[in-house]
Structure formats: structure tokens, C-alpha cells
User: Which sequence fits this backbone?
């Protein structure tokens, strides 16, 4: 029988997995509903892109701040503050109107318009998870954390159909039904806070300890190269966050919110399955080959989907992409750790992660501008094309690098 928590992991990790599941449910439907809600309030495509950018940029800044100064505050307290901010974000979007107020809430809040978890919660939860298990059990714990998030985000995407269903069956105003989903998001934040309250307090020794920071030494050129390449990949991915892809499905093929939610449900399941398969593939063909030779055909499928003549062809190509595109997520982290010396691993993780978050925060506004100008397919083509460049550049730059 599958256990959510590995047998030898500390039971204190269970609330973190449960909180991750709930947050992913909220992120899953918000990624679909956010553009529909903003358009329903009278905002244009450019405003949707700017607000999506603000959510990602704010998350990147908050994550960087936690990395730089978070050690000065107990991690449990920071998690509780983050949960309170999640509740306030939902209420802010439900109760405010107009571009500028929503832009401010988007920047300081916790909404996540992308398919992954790019939020202030992530480094705080990761730090707790890392202390809850050792060796292979730690790897298993992080795998459960990742797949739990992917599966619950897929289920959450199905909930994006609720506003239209409620409007149709109960004659509720559609805009009011959309606002209600933000109130539900706030409620999830409250439940997450209750889960965090079950976490044991930070030990005095852990709170007093200063953060480790290994300076980059012999591997610094490799790390800088990877940081640049990963930033290109993230910038390309930001062009097609789920909010943008949702707009494309709505505009290009006339999808309803229920159909878009169902699409993200199935792509989420395929993405979770690909992450589970990644270690098996990497063991046979290597980390770099897994990263490149699964990612490359996935991005070719994305470009072809943008040019597809009908919905059936486009959806088939997008499902193939979903089944391949997430295999590089676990292998990328493992690869970074394998190409640097043990003393440099903490610094390498920081220098490759932060630029990726910032690069991904820039591009949704560009997609919004392209959509506003009527270039509905161009974000897909640009995303796929830039990612193909990334795949080829990564292979050329790193194929001769020795792994430890």
C-alpha cells in the first residue's frame, strides 16, 4: 500500500505534505480562473499579462528575501505568516477591483499562475523536509512532495468548472461565482495555517545557527553557464504559464472553463507520471540525456500544436508534450548537484535557482502584450522555439562534463 510519508521519515513532515496538497489544489484552479476573472472584470489582455508577471515577480522577490534573511526568524513562524498572506491574497482579489489594486495584491500575495510551485512556501517547506529524513528516505520524501503537488494541482484544475456550473444551475452571477473561488482560496490559506501550527517549534540550536554559504570555487564557470541556460528555459516557460495557455484554449478553440480545467487535469497527471518515470530513464541513459532528449521532442510538439489545424490535433500534441516535458524537473536538480564539488552544492543550488525565478517573472507580460495584439499562437511558438534553443545549447555546453 502506498504511504504518503516514507516509513523512516519524521512524522512531523506529514503536515507539510498535506499543506502542499491543499496549496496545489488552490493553485490548480487559480491558474485557470485568474485570466477569466480578470477579463470578466473588464481588464484587457495586457493587464492580465502584467498581473501574471507581478505574481511571479513578487514570489521571486519573496523567495530571495527568505533565502537572504529568513534564518533570522523561526521557520514555523514564517510558514504561518505565509499562510496568513495566502488568506489575505484570496480576500484581496475577491474584494478589490481595478488594475492597480489587483496589481499590488498580485505582487505581495501568493497567487501562482504557472504550472509549478513558485512561491515563498517552497524554500521554507523544503528546509523542513530536508531535516525530516536522511539518505534515500529524503529522496523518497521529496518525490512524494513533488508528485503530491502535481496530482493535486491537476485535481484543482477540474474545480475551475465550478463558477460556470454554479452560474448555469443556480442562476448565480458569473462574476460573483468567480469571486467566490478566491474566497475559497483564502479558506485554504486558513486550513494551511492550522496544519502549520501542528509543526514542532524550531529548535533553539537551529534558530541560532547561521546559514551555510559555500563560495563557488572550481565549478563556478559551470554554475554560471547552467544559471544562464536555466534562465533561458525559465524565461521561455514564463511565456506560457497556465494562465496564458488557458487564454489560448479559450480564444483559439472556444473552450469553456470546464474544458480548460479538464485539459489541465490530464496534463497534470501526465506531468506527474513523467516525474515518476524520470529516475528510471536517467538510470539507463544518464541525467543530461534525460533532460535534453525528453525535453526536445516535447517542445517540438508545442510549436506544432500552435500551428495545428484543429483542436484534436493540438490537444494530442499537447498531451504528448505533457508526458515528456516534466522529466527534466527532478533530473535537473540531480545534475546540478553532480557537476559541482560537495562543498559548492549549496551555493550552486542558490545561483541556479534565483535567476530562473526572476527570468520566469518577466515573460508573462510579453505574452499578454502579444495576446492583446491578436497574436494568439505566438506565445506557444516563442516558448517552444526558445526551449529548443535551450535544449541544443545545454547539450552542446555540458555533454563533456564529468559527473561526480
Assistant:
Amino acid at each position: 500500500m502506498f504511504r504518503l510519508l516514507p516509513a523512516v521519515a519524521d512524522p512531523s513532515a506529514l503536515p507539510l505534505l498535506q499543506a502542499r496538497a491543499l496549496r496545489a489544489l488552490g493553485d490548480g484552479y487559480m491558474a485557470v480562473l485568474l485570466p477569466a476573472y480578470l477579463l470578466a472584470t473588464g481588464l484587457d489582455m495586457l493587464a492580465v499579462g502584467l498581473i501574471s508577471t507581478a505574481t511571479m515577480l513578487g514570489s521571486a522577490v519573496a523567495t530571495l528575501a527568505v533565502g537572504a534573511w529568513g534564518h533570522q526568524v523561526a521557520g514555523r513562524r514564517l510558514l504561518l505568516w505565509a499562510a496568513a498572506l495566502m488568506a489575505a491574497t484570496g480576500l484581496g482579489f475577491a474584494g478589490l477591483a481595478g488594475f492597480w489594486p489587483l496589481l499590488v495584491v498580485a505582487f505581495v500575495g501568493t497567487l501562482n499562475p504557472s504550472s509549478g510551485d513558485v512561491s515563498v512556501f517552497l524554500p521554507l517547506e523544503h528546509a523542513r523536509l530536508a531535516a525530516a529524513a536522511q539518505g534515500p528516505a529524503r529522496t523518497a520524501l521529496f518525490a512524494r512532495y513533488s508528485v503530491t503537488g502535481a496530482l493535486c494541482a491537476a485535481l484543482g484544475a477540474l474545480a475551475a468548472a465550478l463558477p460556470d456550473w454554479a452560474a448555469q444551475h443556480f442562476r448565480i452571477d458569473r462574476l460573483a461565482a468567480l469571486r467566490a473561488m478566491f474566497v475559497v482560496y483564502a479558506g485554504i490559506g486558513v486550513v494551511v495555517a492550522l496544519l502549520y501550527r501542528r509543526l514542532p517549534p524550531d529548535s533553539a540550536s537551529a534558530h541560532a545557527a547561521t546559514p551555510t554559504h559555500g563560495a563557488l570555487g572550481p565549478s563556478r564557470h559551470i554554475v554560471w553557464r547552467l544559471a544562464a541556460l536555466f534562465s533561458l528555459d525559465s524565461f521561455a516557460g514564463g511565456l506560457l504559464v497556465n494562465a496564458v495557455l488557458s487564454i489560448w484554449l479559450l480564444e483559439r478553440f472556444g473552450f469553456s472553463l470546464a474544458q480548460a480545467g479538464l485539459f489541465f487535469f490530464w496534463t497534470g497527471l501526465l506531468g506527474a507520471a513523467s516525474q515518476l518515470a524520470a529516475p528510471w530513464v536517467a538510470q539507463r541513459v544518464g541525467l543530461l540525456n534525460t533532460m535534453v532528449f525528453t525535453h526536445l521532442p516535447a517542445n517540438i510538439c508545442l510549436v506544432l500544436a500552435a500551428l495545428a489545424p484543429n483542436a484534436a490535433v493540438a490537444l494530442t500534441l499537447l498531451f504528448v508534450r505533457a508526458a515528456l516535458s516534466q522529466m527534466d524537473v527532478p533530473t535537473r536538480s540531480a545534475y546540478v548537484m553532480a557537476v559541482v564539488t560537495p562543498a559548492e552544492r549549496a551555493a550552486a543550488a542558490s545561483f541556479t535557482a534565483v535567476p530562473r525565478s526572476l527570468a520566469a517573472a518577466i515573460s508573462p507580460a510579453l505574452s499578454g502584450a502579444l495576446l492583446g495584439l491578436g497574436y494568439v499562437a505566438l506565445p506557444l511558438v516563442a516558448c517552444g522555439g526558445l526551449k529548443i534553443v535551450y535544449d541544443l545549447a545545454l547539450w552542446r555546453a555540458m555533454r563533456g562534463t564529468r559527473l561526480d
